[in-house]
Write a structure and sequence with these properties.
There is one protein chain. This protein has 554 residues and is an alpha/beta fold. The strands form 4 sheets. The protein has a 7-stranded mixed β-sheet, covered by helices on one side. Strands 6-7-8-9-12-13 form a 6-stranded mixed β-sheet, covered by helices on one side. The mean pLDDT is 94.
Length: 554
């Protein structure tokens, strides 16, 4: 007894129920022609994930219901085809001061124009970027259905991370589990995901097919790489990462149970995986929001160089514009390197000096500042002039400004409100400075999108980092060495390790306390920063919710 299963690894868009439904219909028709009789789409594939407070709107839920009906109707003539479609199901009782959920994160099994079964997710994640308790109530039942003589048990994402839902499906007669997913990416997550699903398959002695979402949604990335594991936990098949794909798995039922097999696509890892995630994040944010292109301030430094390379890989050189805005403190090598990198990447490059504007500001403020020494005030004026220029170009031509600040800067406040923080999308907001250097070297050694080899001039990578806002300035005048800073931030911010424990690991107490203080007092800046791509398990976004006003020295 054999069954061809298609995992439709789709890049859907939140709120585009019509477009998402059409993608599902097209995928199902293609899969049917190739012999598939079971098509599994990702979690909440009808509406996209995460739909956030759109799920609270009755009109949104009604549109989802209509889209599910449309998929069933359009595929009614495909005899024997079963399609698993993810969608919200139900409603909520709402008032100004109370809300009672009667809505589920569900998946329905469609066949020949009918909804055969609807399963509600039992385990609702409420950590990191997840807040499903806000929108859904827990399901209680199981779902097992027959396709080509094989009993298929349906779980949804988090259900498969726990033993009970899978055990209940097996107890209901399942010979095989299929799991629609929308599992957000972070570095190292793909290996953890595969290991946990292999453990689950071994625990209950059933094979498992994991159908994963792909694409970018605001700050969240979904990496695809759908897979299948056999009952012994061994990898049976794997789809490519970071691309849409119709991925086919063969299920053979025999005396020893169901055995799965299929192709095994090679997967990026380490810095390569991180690069693809950042590229996808930029491409989908720009494309799904309809921007004609991007522009950024190219300083001759490592951060803006990295963002430029990511943007070109994501969008192509014709949609990227670089603007060099030299000040009286800009070194000649910064001009030279910025121009050289723009040439290597074949992007439009312009220079707009901020010197006359800076001098005008200083003159206008001369009476107010009389007798006072220069300090960060004058540095911030330069950054804000640049922000004004970039936003003016954005307003005039429609391209979105990409900010170039990294996670180390965001954590410590080494950035200027309404200056270098001005923009619409923060590409490397979740990338520590030490990782910025690593990614720059990786990109110089690899050309995954064919946009140009060795794009970043070596001097940009090797020279000491500097904001170039005063004479002779380097970052380490204001911050600890990045190797030390990032080590502390990894522990303190990303993993909630306390100051005493970090000191016990060998870090200097004064340095650790200083970094912790900088993280604490700069929350007000981060609240006003643009959305950016999340690539770690703890980024400054949906999974970082700290008060601005607080006396607790966390």
């Amino acid at each position: 007894m054999a069954l061809t299963i298609c995992t439709a690894q789709l890049n859907v868009t939140v709120g585009d129920m019509e477009g998402n439904a059409q993608k599902i219909i097209a995928a199902a028709r293609t899969a049917y022609e190739r012999g598939a009789r079971l098509v599994v789409t990702p979690e909440l594939s009808i509406c996209g994930y995460p739909a956030e407070d759109l799920l609270l709107r009755p009109a949104f839920i009604a549109a989802c219901d209509d889209a599910v009906k449309k998929v069933a109707r359009e595929l009614a003539g495909l005899k024997g085809l079963h399609v698993v479609v993810g969608h919200p199901h139900g409603s909520a009782i709402r008032g100004k001061s109370v809300q009672v959920q009667q809505r589920y994160n569900a998946a329905s099994v469609l066949c020949e124009g009918k909804v055969l079964e609807t399963y509600a997710k039992r385990e609702l994640p409420n950590y990191q970027v997840f807040d499903e308790y806000r929108y859904f109530t827990r399901g209680q039942g199981t779902c097992v259905f027959q396709v080509e003589g094989i009993s298929v048990g349906l779980l949804i994402c988090e259900d498969a991370w726990f033993t009970e839902p899978a055990q209940l499906a097996r107890a209901s007669g399942a010979q095989l589990l299929v799991v629609p997913n929308a599992s957000p990416f972070h570095a190292g997550k793909s290996g953890e995901r595969l290991a946990r699903m292999a453990d689950r398959a071994q625990d209950i002695e059933l094979p498992l097919v994991y159908a994963h979402l792909v694409g970018g949604q605001d700050e969240v990335i979904f990496d695809g790489a759908s897979f299948a594991v056999n009952a012994d936990g061994s990898l049976a098949a794997m789809a490519p990462a970071f691309v849409e794909d119709l991925f086919y798995v063969q299920a053979e039922a025999g005396e020893q149970g169901v055995t799965l097999s299929g192709p095994k696509a090679s997967q990026p890892d380490g810095d390569g995986e991180l690069w693809h995630a950042l590229v996808m994040g930029v491409r989908d944010y720009i494309g799904k929001n309809g921007f004609p292109g991007v522009l950024l301030g190219l300083s001759g430094g490592i951060d803006s160089a990295l963002v430029l390379a990511i943007a070109v890989d994501a969008l192509g050189a014709d949609k990227v514009r670089a603007v060099m805005m030299p000040s009286p403190y800009t070194a000649d090598i910064s001009w030279i390197d910025a121009a050289e990198m723009s040439k290597r990447m074949n992007v439009r490059y312009d220079e707009i000096s901020i010197k006359p504007m800076f001098e005008s500001f200083l003159q206008s403020l001369s009476k107010e500042f009389a007798g006072l020494p220069e300090d960060t005030t004058e540095e911030n004026i330069q950054a804000r002039i640049r922000g004004v220029l970039l936003m003016a170009l954005s307003n005039k031509f429609g391209s979105i400004v990409l900010t170039t600040g990294n996670k180390s800067e965001m954590a410590t406040g080494y950035c200027t409100l309404y200056g270098d923080m001005a923009g619409g999308f923060a590409v490397i907001k979740d990338v520590l400075k030490t990782i910025v250097f690593r990614l720059a070297r990786w990109r110089n050694a690899n050309d995954p999108y064919g946009t140009g080899a060795n794009p970043i001039p070596e001097r940009i990578i090797t020279r000491p980092p500097s904001a170039e806002l005063r004479a002779g300035q380097v970052d380490q005048d204001s911050l600890p060495p990045y190797e030390v800073l990032d080590g502390i931030l990894n522990r303190y911010m990303e993993n909630d390790v306390g100051v005493e424990d970090i000191v016990a690991e060998g870090y200097d107490r004064a340095t650790v306390e200083r970094v912790a203080r900088l993280v604490r007092i700069n929350e007000y800046k981060r609240r006003q920063s643009p959305v950016g791509i999340r690539v770690t398990h703890r980024g400054f976004g949906k999974d970082w919710r700290y008060p601005i006003t607080s006396k607790f020295k966390f």
